[in-house]
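Morning - flavin mononucleotide inputs below, output right after.
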Amino acid sequence: MKKAIIYYNSRKGTTKYFGEEIGDYLKAKGIETKVCSVLDAKPEQVNGVDYVFMGCWTHGLFIVLQHPPKPWIEFAKDLPDLKGKKIALFTTYKLAIGPLFKKMQNKLNGKIDPVSLTLKSKTDKLNDLNKQLIDKFLLD
Ligand SMILES: Cc1cc2nc3c(=O)[nH]c(=O)nc-3n(C[C@H](O)[C@H](O)[C@H](O)COP(=O)(O)O)c2cc1C
């Protein structure tokens, strides 16, 4: 059985519920999945995991200067090596995410293989397009 972990950083709950929606979708596909706040992340949780999803809300000036929030940056700093695992990033936002995914990748530099999937959503729901992207990510 494949295993996944989904880490989220959320202020008001949107990103948490979006992460849980991703988790429910993976579980329905038979993947053993844990959903966890970045505040509760522990290095041993990634042992034996095939897929790592890491998400945060979009923090910026709504049209420019988007970046990951501080707790997510701290989480990225403390993460163990994730090479050999498939990596997905996700965010929720209101207007524009700008360079957010690029900044998230920079914080993970040296610890991960290239990111295989990015998902963004203005709601806490997983839409059909995002489901298709996840299907492709799991197959590739
Ligand atoms: C201080 C602050 C800055 C934000 N900056 C942006 C932004 O630059 N672009 C954007 O689209 N949304 C921005 N948002 C909106 C949030 O990213 C969005 O509402 C998100 O879904 C919140 O997730 P959460 O409910 O998990 O906290 C900002 C919100 C706050 C409070």
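Note: The helical segments are 14-28, 70-78, 100-108, 128-139.

O.
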